[in-house]
């Protein structure tokens, strides 16, 4: 039995022994992953690096990712984009994520609407049937904005998800209309006031009842260099922390972006990819798109005390060659050379944002003090 199974089993017991550790006594650990663009559920042989990755994730109380895939179901509508960039899969991919330890998702992204409003509803139903929790899309705007929560014996973890950029017409949630929780920008480029107020209110609500809150932003309004973090997004991330978020987690750009802190809380602006099964040909994305990190956040009380970074590499080419999409884009723990390269680049990006990453062998640590 791994640590997560143990602590959840203890938390579910009707009568806990008086000598058992109090919730949070060893710290609450949340592992935050890059986006999961997964279209094929792998066999054990299809994902050679699974054991190493899961070995890291087993130490977490909660594991969070952005599901950038629509689940095909009975209400699926005609695709809203060309097939090359349509991200859709059967429900079994959720079992792949669940088996790796993922229990908390965001579905706020520009691909949530790939099969129309029906696809959004089918995806939400499949996630619920799999026993996972999600935020960022819903049957209406209220439910798309609402936090998602998982309970662990070490504390309650909530997430609020929202998306900016490339949300297609009809893809945004509204009163009485399914869609994603969209953070739009006004004519000046700043977040639209009504969207900002709604999202910050959801973060405050979650913070009032949770041990930790993840504010997750899937952003497609990139800088010309998509490894850079837009100034407006940096400012909004700080407002999320001020509203009560424990951590700001960014997705959207397919490459890692820098990290910083605000009031001692981590700003993980771009976590890159965790699984990346794009159907675009080899070479369509730069090498950094095939890299990522596991960001392991440990919290003592309401204070983040550690963010450890475990570098990952993803296989751009399937195990059976370039036409093998089913085994493409799965993560493996980075070896010494790749880990050093990933961490050195991430450290330089973070320094430019005012953050500091200390490299310790094949791991990095984001300073929060």
Overview features:
Purple Acid Phosphatase, chain A, domain 2; single chain; 8 helices; nine-stranded mixed sheet; six-stranded mixed sheet; alpha/beta; 369 residues; 21 strands
Layout: helices, strands, pairs:
Blueprint: H1 3-12, E1 28-32, E2 35-37, H2 50-57, E3 62-66, E4 70-71, E5 88-89, H3 92-99, E6 104-106, H4 116-129, E7 133-135, E8 137-138, H5 141-145, E9 148-152, E10 155-164, E11 179-180, H6 193-207, E12 212-219, H7 231-243, E13 247-251, E14 259-262, E15 265-268, E16 273-276, E17 291-300, E18 303-314, E19 331-333, H8 336-352, E20 357-360, E21 363-366
Helix pairs in contact: 6-7
Q: What is the overall silhouette? A: globular
- What summary fits the major beta sheet? 9 strands, mixed
Total DSSP E strands:
21
Class by alpha and beta content = alpha/beta
The CATH topology annotation reads as: Purple Acid Phosphatase, chain A, domain 2
Order of helices and strands: HEEHEEEHEHEEHEEEHEHEEEEEEEHEE
Q: Which regions contain 5 or more consecutive residues with pLDDT less than 50?
A: 6-25
Percent strand equals: 25-35%
Our Rg estimate from Cα atoms comes to 19 Å
CATH-defined architecture: 4-Layer Sandwich
The first-level CATH class is given as: Alpha Beta
């Amino acid at each position: 039995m791994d640590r997560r199974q143990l602590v959840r089993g203890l938390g579910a017991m009707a009568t806990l022994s008086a000598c058992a550790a109090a919730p949070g006594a060893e710290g609450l650990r949340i592992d935050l992953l890059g986006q999961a663009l997964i279209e094929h559920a792998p066999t054990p042989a299809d994902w050679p690096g699974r054991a190493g990755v899961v070995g890291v994730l087993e130490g977490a109380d909660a594991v969070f990712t952005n599901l950038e895939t629509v689940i095909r179901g009975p209400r699926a509508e005609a695709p809203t984009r060309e097939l090359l960039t349509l991200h859709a899969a059967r429900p079994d991919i959720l079992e792949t994520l669940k088996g790796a330890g993922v229990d908390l998702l965001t579905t706020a992204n520009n691909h949530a609407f790939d099969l129309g409003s029906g696809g959004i509803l089918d995806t939400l139903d499949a996630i619920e049937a799999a026993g996972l929790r999600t935020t960022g899309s819903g049957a209406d705007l209220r439910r798309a904005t609402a936090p998602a929560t998982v309970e662990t014996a070490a504390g309650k973890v909530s997430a609020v998800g929202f998306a900016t950029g490339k949300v297609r017409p009809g893809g945004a949630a509204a009163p009485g209309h399914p869609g994603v929780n969209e953070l739009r920008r006004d004519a000046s480029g700043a977040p639209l006031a009504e969207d900002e107020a709604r999202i910050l209110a959801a973060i405050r609500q979650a913070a009032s009842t949770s041990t930790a809150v993840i504010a997750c932003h899937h952003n497609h309004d990139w800088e010309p260099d998509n490894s850079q973090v837009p100034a407006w997004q940096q400012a909004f991330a700080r407002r999320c922390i001020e509203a009560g978020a424990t951590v700001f987690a960014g997705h959207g750009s397919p490459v890692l972006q820098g990290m910083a802190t605000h009031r001692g809380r981590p700003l993980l602006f771009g976590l890159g990819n965790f699984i990346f099964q794009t159907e675009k040909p080899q070479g369509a994305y730069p090498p950094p798109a095939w890299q990522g990190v596991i960001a392991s956040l440990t919290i003592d009380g309401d204070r983040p005390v550690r963010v450890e970074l475990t570098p990952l590499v993803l296989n751009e080419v399937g195990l059976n060659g370039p036409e093998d999409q089913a085994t493409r884009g799965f993560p493996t723990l980075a070896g010494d050379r790749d880990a050093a390269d990933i961490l050195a680049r991430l450290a330089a990006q973070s320094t430019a944002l005012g953050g500091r990453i200390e490299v310790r062998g094949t791991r990095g640590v984001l300073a929060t003090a």
